[in-house]
Automatic annotation (TrEMBL):
An example molecular function term from Gene Ontology annotations: DNA binding
Species classification: Bacteria, Bacillati, Actinomycetota, Actinomycetes, Pseudonocardiales
Organism: Amycolatopsis thermoflava
Name of the protein in its database record: Transcriptional regulator with XRE-family HTH domain
InterPro entries per record: Cro/C1-type_HTH, Lambda_DNA-bd_dom_sf
Annotated HTH cro/C1-type domain residues: 14-67
UniProt superkingdom: Bacteria
Pfam families per record: HTH_3 (PF01381)
Length: 124
């Protein structure tokens, strides 16, 4: 079986970006060029059609692969980058954040992820 779309992950990313920009769901849909009913259905766990998916990931400015789930891990056997590695370029590109703010956020995420990883190791 091949990869599949993680609709929940896509919806969460849309919601986070929507909130950060102070938009309603209708405004998000209009900006992305999709119907408001599409994002509403996604909130109920339904997958978007291909054109809707493309429009939404383009609106987010994120690669489509971000929202793919591979049952056997990465398709070519590569290990997925850590959350910290994925966040670093996004934070560095954020013009609202000073360099020290960016580093502070990365430090907070790094500390939190180390705690989570240690906790997960203990429970195994």
């Amino acid at each position: 079986m091949g990869g599949r779309l993680d609709t929940g992950r896509l919806y969460a990313a849309l919601d986070a970006e929507r909130e950060s920009r102070g938009l309603s769901w209708r405004q998000l849909a209009a900006e992305a060029g999709v119907s408001a009913s599409l994002v509403s259905r996604m909130g109920n766990g339904h997958r978007p059609d291909l054109d809707g998916f493309i429009a939404l990931v383009q609106w987010l400015g994120m690669p489509a692969e971000t929202f793919m789930v591979w049952p056997e891990g990465q398709p070519d056997g590569r290990r997925r980058p850590s959350l910290e590695a994925q966040l670093a370029p996004l934070l560095r590109a954020e013009e609202e954040l000073s360099e020290s703010d960016q580093q502070h956020l990365l430090d907070v995420v790094g500390l939190t992820m180390r705690h989570i990883r240690a906790k997960n190791k203990e429970s195994k």
